[in-house]
Model the fold of this input.
Amino acid sequence: MKARIENLLAQIKELKCSNAKEIEEARVRLLGKKGEVTALFEEFRSFSPELKKEFGRTINELKQAAAAKIEELKSTVSQEQVSEGSKEDLSMPGTPFELGSRHPVSIVRQEIVDIFRKFGYDVAEGPEIEDDYHVFEALNFPQNHPARDMQDTFFVSAGHPNPLLLRTHTSSVQVRAMETMKLPIRVICPGRVFRNEAISARAHCIFHQVEGLYIDENVTFADLKQAILLFAREMFGPETQIRMRPSYFPFTEPSSEIDVSCNICHGKGCNICKGTGWLEIMGCGMVDPNVLEASGIDSSKYSGFAFGMGLERIAMLKWQVNDLRHYFENDLRFLSEFKTSIEV
Ligand code: PHE
Done:
């Protein structure tokens, strides 16, 4: 008996298993119903009291040693299996992925919206697919008037008595604002516009505008001039000067084109401003009384001004980009240059 116990103890000490299956087999071999340790216990039951006394402790120790060894093997093998299953170090930092950045046109749009919000303007948006009425008719473009040629239009349903078209300016949103908002109105309308133009460094068939409208009693051209001057100084710096040149739009009278002093050469003349010291940024004017009346506003009581600018143009001036097409090509080399300007 003694020899068998010692022999088994030695076996247990040396026991090695490389996976869970082998451990289970060893457990059954030793401690299972027909296992060797179990068999010893069976024999032990029939021993005389003297023998029981002699072997009681060692046989119990044997059983404990067998059980302890099995547990020990289980814990080492399961650890090995885990580390075998995943060779990666899960505590390593993850692979970094590049953050995107705001598109330069969005950055400029946000800046303009923020400036006019500070002046108390609301922001309004409207449909890109519009009807003739909101893009032309209500804005004092009579049917067949040559002024419609100023903005070559993409028609969605040409030939239809009331054709749908892609809006050529966001003035259509101003019409919708006049129809629905309570007076006085102070609103800016940012959005995408479409014109049937050949694509070049200076023109594109899709671009973005922010147009603005202010209607109240006693609004004068002086108010327009002051609003634009304040805007230009916020946008291009406190030293900025503006210049107004007479112009023509069917929906404003009088109308004007606005130039800002070149923020590169400060008026001395450089290749950005083509030696003139001035950069054209927007069109504007006093809202034509016909336009007010078309939207049901009493032009004998109310007056207003409107303005509109192209965002790509402003962005070109801000970052001296010389080709408009860069804004539409989604070339990451170009877009990633605006990384530092991310605002969340
Ligand atoms: N709607 C004009 C355009 O797209 C811009 C403009 C707006 C001019 C308001 C004057 C007043 O060219």
Remarks:
- The pocket of phenylalanine is lined by residues 169, 171, 211, 249, 252, 283-285, 306-308 (CB under 6 Å).
- The radius of gyration is 42 Å.
- The chain has a mean pLDDT of 88.
